[in-house]
């Protein structure tokens, strides 16, 4: 493998990366990228390894010996500090990040995203190890624009809705709206990491993903996840499409979101890993402001894409409206728009996303149709116990 160079033309030394949450959607794509394109070694920590099994077996793989799986639940495992000490860099991807859980499991959500992350930050700081911590675009909460009168011309001014890492406020709903438990826990761990950097010299980078989409994301209930439970919007819609059910639009599907392809986003993470001088001390939005749609528009586009990739006819009524209370339970609230400002990541790392919304949906739905259609048929064909 030819020597890799960083953005400033210096050779990149092979490093050991402790990746917490390596078995998840983002972790699996990042592990693939690191194995295929770099000389780096990965200590892959997670409770499950289904999504990275293809990287671990057999021993004849070209990267054999560069990825080790450690089955660890970071809540209570004495091996965590030792693994962080063995590495040059720790990447923390572990989180509960499914919106339906924010209302129904607020304590688990707060513990998972704040309390469980504390030892990771502490061990990195005490052992002078660099940390890349995955946060969320949810830390921004609601836009300033959402508080303006509906007919205010200021709602169209980007200053009131484009989200900037260094200037946008983080505005959450009231305490009884437990949906904000996730965003609040994530914001507090960000503040703690930032304080460790300021007071104790921790080298850190914080990543705020804006809806990363692609193969292996989330779960399809009853197929590769629990039968009960509600995944995020794109997996919810995929699940409905695969099962030929109408797509459920919460509160009319008026919320607006941007979506970025996982392979584009992973390019950004690799730039952070290999350019510490440019990435340390920064918080980075990683999203695609060009791929903005309302949830209703997303449902319409996914229906069209799925019809194309599956060859199945569209349902007569492809979507239905449901209330947030009915769908998520009491205490739900939502952010109106999430458009990332890309100035900082563009200036520091020269990164821009490339993939259009149609293309990323086609890639994701093709994968899901191929992988899950057979499994769904099998699950539906299983005889019921008498």
From TrEMBL:
List the Gene Ontology MF annotations in alphabetical order.
Answer: identical protein binding; protein heterodimerization activity; UDP-D-apiose synthase activity; UDP-glucuronate decarboxylase activity
Top EC class of this enzyme: lyase
User: What EC number(s) does this enzyme carry?
Assistant: 4.1.1.35
Q: Kindly indicate whether the keyword Lyase belongs to this entry.
A: yes
Q: Which UniProt keywords apply?
A: Cell wall biogenesis/degradation, Cytoplasm, Lyase, NAD
Its localization reads: Cytoplasm
What would be one Gene Ontology cellular-component term for the protein? cytoplasm
**Stored Pfam families:** Epimerase
Q: Which CDD domains match?
A: Arna_like_SDR_e
Cofactor(s) listed in the protein's UniProt record: NAD(+)
Catalytic activity reported: UDP-alpha-D-glucuronate + H(+) = UDP-alpha-D-apiose + CO2; UDP-alpha-D-glucuronate + H(+) = UDP-alpha-D-xylose + CO2
Query: Which residues are in the NAD-dependent epimerase/dehydratase domain?
Result: 17-287
Domain of life here? Eukaryota
Per the record, the major location class is cytoplasm
Which GO biological process categories is it annotated with?
cell wall organization; UDP-D-apiose biosynthetic process
Q: Which InterPro entries match?
A: Arna-like_SDR_e (IPR045869), Epimerase_deHydtase (IPR001509), Lipid_A_modif_metabolic_enz (IPR050177), NAD(P)-bd_dom_sf (IPR036291)
The record's similarity note reads: Belongs to the NAD(P)-dependent epimerase/dehydratase family.
**Entry protein name:** UDP-glucuronate decarboxylase
